[in-house]
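task queued by scheduler; priority normal; single chain, no ligands, no partner chains; default sampling; output format set to structure tokens
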Amino acid sequence: MNKDQEKLLSENTAAIKEMQNDFQKFYKFIKHILPEIEHTKTLTRLEKEMEESRKKIKIDLV
């Protein structure tokens, strides 16, 4: 390996480590928000299913 390749490898390794650190910081922040997002989607789906069930019941009773 020549000096240019070693320099490039070193720069890429440093960039990868920086990206890993950035991801770890991001994950520490987002892990507290993810359950809320999941709950919101689940809650929205359940509400929609409940509303559809109510509509079916009304149609069947009429």
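post-processing summary
- The helical segments are 3-30, 34-61.
- The chain has two helices and no strands.
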